[in-house]
Amino acid sequence: MGCCSSKETETSKKNLESTTTELLRSEIEDKAELKSTPISKRSQTTTKLPPRRYSRGLSTVDRKPKNFTKEKAQAVNPSPQNTFKDSTKQYIKKFSKTPLRQHFSTIKKKFLDFNDSFSLVNDKRTGVKKIIKEVKKSDIFEGVYDNFIKEIQNFQRLDHPNIVKLYDIYELGDNFFLVYEYLPGLSLADKIHHESIGYSLASTIMRDILSGLNHCHGNDIPHLGINFGKININTKEGNIIKLLGFTYPWEIKKKVEANKATCYMGPEILNKNYSLFASDIWSLGVILYTIVQGKLPYKGKNVADLKNEYKKEIVFEGNDWAFTSDELKDLLSKMLEYDYKKRITAADALNHPWIKNNKPPSLTPKD
């Protein structure tokens, strides 16, 4: 990634003003504070786009052809067993039954702020730090057990520079234990607490996370829990941006039923549709809006309040948007589209002019 000149850095520093805004650090509440001036308040060369209406359909992994039947699917892709259940039974035999204590020593339980089920461990075989997530079988929805097995099977095969790596899966008694790579560095919540994020850097973060999401969605894997705390930025080892903390539908369902909803959850989630790829785009749109404006797009911390908030249309006018380009406002409107069927997909967002035209800056902290 290219580096900004020292002159540009000094100029931008002089133009920044201090402001503080509470952000939701987890699905329930992000407690980081935005200390830089929201980038919407800074001067920017704007590009006028011709007025037009936007309507986006579902991504290819969401969309099924009309008159598509199970029989047609079997004809297109025949399988000797042709049942998900059989294939998952074969795969589950490969899960390790070795007691965790033989391979790992616990460094810290409840390691990640956003979920108590994550622990930081040391791999005794290699000396490498890793993260283990505990999944209780009793928490998994009745009837979706096979889908869960398929998803973690697919996830273990993922190889993308912007997605946390799943190394191993252990099945012990009534629990699964998922062993992920340990990510050093700062969360996006911590980064905006310590320094300013400009348009170019915001575009870089969006580009990398959208790239990772597009890869996941293409492999039938939604994230379902994106927020500031689940985006990791490692400036010491190649300025790598990674998405972590993948969530499962029953975890989202529990939060909604416990009335612990946040605006990272799209309208469809509040309407009990828990596993759509479009929900990830909504969450990322909330993050981009917050970086730009220094505040969340919607208030409310329970289902009823948020449902009322979501009915209000976001108007990209006034002094708050004076220095925001039409391209950026256009992208935000598509990411925060109420109707998930019309919401922009990760693939289309990657090709949006605001993402493509902004040059990636260095993520290394300025001296």
Question: Can you offer a commentary on this structure?
Answer:
- By secondary structure, this protein is an alpha+beta fold.
- It has two domains: 230 residues, Transferase(Phosphotransferase), domain 1 (Orthogonal Bundle), CATH 1.10.510; 99 residues, Phosphorylase Kinase, domain 1, CATH 3.30.200.20.
- It has 14 helices and eight strands.
- The longest helix has 20 residues.
- The protein starts with 5 loop residues before the first helix and ends in a 10-residue tail after the last helix.
- GO terms for molecular function: ATP binding; protein kinase activity.
- This is Protein kinase domain-containing protein.
- InterPro entries: Kinase-like_dom_sf, Prot_kinase_dom.
- Pfam families: Pkinase (PF00069).
Rg for CA atoms: 21 Å
In CATH terms, the superfamily of the largest domain is Transferase(Phosphotransferase) domain 1
CATH class of the largest domain, named Mainly Alpha
Write down the CATH topology of the largest domain: Transferase(Phosphotransferase), domain 1
| Main sheet: strands, sense, barrel | 5 strands, antiparallel
Helix content: 25-40%
Mean pLDDT: 77
Q: How many domains, as an integer?
A: 2
